[in-house]
Amino acid sequence: EDLIPDDPMVVTVSHAGYVKRNPVDLYQAQHRGGRGITATTTRDQDFVEQLFVATARTSLLVFTDRGKVYWLKVHAVPQAGRTSRGKPIVNLLRVEKGEQVTAVLPVRHFVAGEFVVMATARGLVKKVDLMAFAHPRPSGLIALSIEEGDRLISVAITDGARDLLVCTQEGLLIRFKESTVRPTGRTARGVRAIHFKSSTDAVVGMVVSSATYPYLLTLCALGTGKRTPLSAYRVTGRAGQGITNVKSIERTGPVAGICAVGDDDEVMVLTNRGMMIRTGTREIPVHGRATSGVRVIRLGKGEAVTSVARLARLESREGLVEGEADALPPTIAPEADDDGDTEPPTP
User: Fold this and answer.
1) What mean pLDDT is predicted for residues 72-92?
2) Contact at 8 Å (CB) between 282 and 227?
3) What is the predicted pLDDT for the residue at 261?
């Protein structure tokens, strides 16, 4: 690996699990407001969900719904053409039959003081020191012991001082301090994040508080959605029953998904019949916490929203070693307006 040039690469991961890498200089700088160029080609019901800059020796932690983690170096990701879809990430790993990828997290350096936080459908949350994943194994490792009928649904890397927001399909949400979850070993089961009011409820997503994404976007099965400021959700103790996030789920249907968004983001909404809509978050009004939201997508008879995801931004320069950020070409640096404000560039 020491002989591999540690050049910055643009890595794209699609919603369907296709991955590829390209040199950063493949994406030429354009003036703000330009039309842009094609970054990848996707098929129906697929779109780019993650796009970030990472050097060739950066590790990708790939988590599956069965609680296992696999390692993949960026230089091992196939380099494909700018408009290519890439390769299925499961074909690059020794995953077991039936395993589905839940999250792909880039890690440049494994350092003490950072943590991996995981949430399951049955309301468990677990925090593991990032250093526990510093030694790769080709066959993968158990990151979380999963019980029968449960599955890993959300994973994030944190600094140990964030708030965690866990939402259920019946419209309840709990926000608690990450510090209330003590770090445990890799094979531990985790602790209770939220107690369900009904036996049919389940967690649909977890969000880590961030100043970059100040809103929580909630989409329900019958096509309604809303944006709510994260500040509207008060911090409570872990393992409570939560507070109301969506009112009258009899009218809106169960919550299909959540994600943290900013004012200038775009989201993709998918249905069980393969329909998909792309919309800017500014098109979805900001509503209070215990409200139902507005119609985001019009559905046919028997159709329902199955998932919502924020479209990938080009992550600025996070994860690069000191000095490499300055060496990157200006293609991924935000342009400045005359008044000093910045906007993300068009890839």
Assistant:
1) 88
2) no
3) 96
Residue 49 in tokens = 């969900």
Contact 215, 153 (CB under 8 A): no
Given the structure tokens 């842009």, which residue do they identify?
36
The tokens describing 141, both together, are 């490792």
The answer on pLDDT for 339 being more than 60 is no
Instruction: Note whether 30 and 36 are within 8 A (CB).
Output: yes
Structure tokens at 176: 């608690």
Q: CB under 8 Å, gap of 24 or more: what pairs does 73-81 form?
A: 73/1, 74/9, 74/11, 74/21, 74/106, 75/1, 75/4, 77/9, 77/11, 77/19, 77/20, 77/21, 78/19, 78/20, 78/21, 79/20, 79/21, 79/22, 79/23, 80/20, 80/21, 80/22
* Global confidence as pTM: 0.82
Q: Vertex 301, ends 299 and 307: CA angle to 5°?
A: 45
Rounded distance, CA 345 to CA 30, Å? Answer: 7
CB atoms within 10 A of CB 38: 8
Q: How far apart are the first and last CA of the chain?
A: 29
